[in-house]
Structures
1.
Amino acid sequence: MTTIRQDDLIRSVADALQHISYYHPLDYIQNLARAYAREASPAARDAMAQILVNSRMCAEGHRPLCQDTGIVNVFCKVGMNVRWDARLSLTEMINEGVRQAYLHPDNKLRASIVADPSGLRLNTRDNTPAVVHTELVLGDEVSITVAAKGGGSENKSKFAMLNPNDSIVEWVLNTVPLMGAGWCPPGMLGIGIGGTAEKAMLMAKEALMEPIDIQDLQARGAQNGLEALRLELYEKVNALGIGAQGLGGLTTVLDVKILDYPTHAASKPIAMIPNCAATRHAHFVLDGSGPAELAVPKLADWPTISWSAGASARRVNLDSVTAQDIATWRPGETLLLSGAMLTGRDAAHQRIQTLLERGESLPAGLDFRGRFIYYVGPVDPVRDEVMGPAGPTTATRMDKFTEMMLAKTGLLGMIGKAERGPSGIEAIKRHAAVYLMAVGGAAYLVSKAIRKSRVVAFADLGMEAVYEFVVEEMPVTVAVDAQGTSVHQTGPAEWRARIGKIPVAVKA
């Protein structure tokens, strides 16, 4: 009978979470590099280059791949012959490992978890609690998979109760475009089919923990129905032309993983969960011999890729830019931003709205007139950093506030990731504003452009406080211009037509 010690489990969880915060799984890097090599869309290729360069930088610097260091998911398979030398429950041990990982002084990770989700939504400050799934199995070991799931991809999870004769392929192809680009493609799709509603969702999440092997499957051919379905979905989802960061291109997914389970004769539950460009998961086994050790990848495993904005990039001084200037910016154009910008996410926007509705003034020093706001919740700095990884958050969540911000604060433009929805685009067009896109999954690369940082307002909101960043040549793309043209509409439409493999019946 194996004895598992409490400290070994805690340390193993903490070490694994630190490991996945800065090391991509090798299979992801290898397959993204292949996709980059064959990508024909300049915009998508540029985004992939930033993700790959960011990945290597994080591996070298041991800093997070993404500013959203995720909600922790843990899958435990506990052997029935195991005994415990522990004072805490399994979930309590896991949460202590999470706490230690996220508060590590050399690589502090962003605390994103809020308690009282339907009410006050107060940050727990240490990213606990984790979401833990436990299964008793035969054996005398404890097998654990940890994952850190970002909100941008988790928010795009989809579920449906199909009729038994409904087409899974049609549902997937109609649903993926509805997910937008906030999940930061290229990534993976995890699909769960069968069981019950909650079983399908759990299988979709578990499927994302499997290695990327679609190239091997293509080479040998499908040997059963699920493998054939994977191959069909992989080809057809990529034929949607969504591309890296939703900019249009050949690769939207690097793999499609599927798990299934017997279901009721009247049912066909299906769940789909994407994994983003900062895919983070690791597996380890405890056998009583001590804490687990994860293999450290070699920097030689990363492709040799460099990134530059290119000679045609327009340099913009944020301290002097005007409405007349932004009217000349064109969709898809690369800009290099220098100067001061403000930041803000959901909680800050909500607080601003509340103050304005009450007829109250904004806090002293919080002035948006003629300025840009960056949708970001950064990681705290360590050592000599000005700011930790500070990539963009999903812009569509701020659409409900866009008209208010443009009409009542004098805001000139916005920076985020992924597309804007109809209301956001309409407000941008109405006020002749602009929306710029930074690459999701390149947070550490973006942080290197930040030269100064200070909290301006709402310090109690933690990572959702309003900061002022002074940046130097921060790379962005004009995603919605002052006339309301969106590259997230024009790009995928162009590449879907170029690829030309989508059935007419599918409403992509």
2.
Amino acid sequence: MELFEELQWRGLIKDVSDPKIKDMINSGNCTFYWGTDPSADSLHIGHLCSLLVAKRLEKNNNHPILLIGGATGQIGDPRPTTERPMITKEEVNHNVECLKKQVTDLFGYEVVDNYDWSKEINFIDFLRDYGKYFNVNYMLDKDIIRRRLETGITYTEFSYMIMQALDFLYLYENKNCILQMEGSDQWGNITSGIDLVRKKTGKEVYGFTIPLITDSTGKKLGKSEGNAIWLDKNKTSSYELYQFFLNVEDSMVIDYLKKYTFLSKEEIDKLEDSTNKEPEKRLAHKKLAEEIVTFLHGKEGYESAIKITNALFNGSIKELSEDELKSAMSGVETITIDEECNIVDMLVNTKILSSKREAREFITNGSISINGEKINDLDMLVNKENALYNKYIVVRRGKKKYYLVIFN
């Protein structure tokens, strides 16, 4: 397969503005861009698909540019239902610098900030040089605008389309950028940029979209949906990243392998066959998690994720470093205590169990583990001496329910 056909097979092409895009991508030597607004100080797993599409195009001798919206991020792309809350200019600037470093470190792409060319445009020039090329009826017909008319849309949000179109014009005139790619929710903004370039210069530029990455219910894997998995390992650890992809739905794992990895069709077909014939082995899930963690966090991050996974499964929690322990317990209910106490009292006082009678039953039945070891002694003292690093008590109730008790 040539590159464009491979992108189609992987499910990475949705809308194209012109059939010529196929030959442009396959032949290489095309400068293209995609953008993101700095609404956080890290990109998340929803962005990763676009970053990897850019990497695929780059490997075929196309030149990628990532645009970070230092200007548009101060305005906010219209949401389908309500206006985005504005963040401070200081926060926008901080996020811009963080994203520049993250993308440069991970991918080495050229990064630009649309604030650099937007800050000099005054209001009158904006209306004369750009606003005059946008028919209001044309703007109202864009899907995202049309969906907001019932609830209302501010002039600020309404103007976002013009600002993004201006970006395409600037990059065309200054970087010879002739192609834009975005998630499918940006199709209206892409075509607005294409139209502006045509009206201002008489030249043609092009665009295509990538389907949004979702779970089986159609819910986006993105920050706005409240389920962000960050690319920054200080915000989402290697272990958390590994566990997220290890536990994706069976119905989605092959789709994610196609979109999130560089495995060949033959390799993915074999994993799909294994998933169908021997799903209990979870080979596709393990490979998906391995590929993503290794790509983002390196071999060391992957090995750490495996070590933590095995420690929790085998009960060898004491072998974890303090950082690995914290990572393993990220998201686990955490309770603080001030002084040593009897195991039964500790389980009740922390509300891990509801009564002393229930606590005694769980202990007697071998259903309570402390730091990886089953507890049968009803008189055991829980103190800093038997805490990990003189601070942490990892409690497992039953087979899977974990709690982290921390001494003040």
3.
Amino acid sequence: MQSKLARFKHFVIDLKKYNTIIFDCDGVILNSNFQKIEAYRNAAITYGATKSQAEDLVTYHVKLTGISRNIKFKYFLKEIMGEEILDSSMNSLVGNLNKEVVSLLKGCEIASGMKKLKFETRKSTWMVASGGDQEELRFLFKKKKITSYFDGGIYGSPSSKHEIIESKLKNKNFLPTLFLGDSLYDIQTAQKYNLDFIFIYGWTDLKNWKKICDDKGLTYIEKIEDLI
């Protein structure tokens, strides 16, 4: 019933009116949210955290899904490990996470319907705004042969989604824009910049996504292919 309702709600949206379509990556383009959880857990343990401390990081990561790993690791060092935030510690954690992510995400599922949606919205510019590491994203997209879809660029950490969008707002052809996301931060970002938004729930790790979407009157669909 959820999928039928979501599709019905979507039919009022004219995709062809958008100059830009922004995609979050994890949970939208790639079925990678739960692999990312495992990557954060492993990165913390490799750093020297106990299993309990690693789980505390995972909980914080899920709470802040879509937000830069730098923010999460600063919290981890200061609040969970009780350590000073040093460049060496941050570099170690980010390096551990990068290795874990690349290893775990090489085989993860890509959203179906991308090619057809690109054709249907061929006059729109596609871009990625993710909380993931920018170079890591570009590497993975190249490996998965989906870089060419995103003619507007693939962007991520260390820039925040807010910084990425603010830089694009300077382009007079950026609006109107549609944002496709799966996290609370994605919703908040779209609302901050008054962008149209569709929630993709099929791979989300946001437990109360439906109540949030219903309360805010947001359109939601299970997966990208439901757009077409």
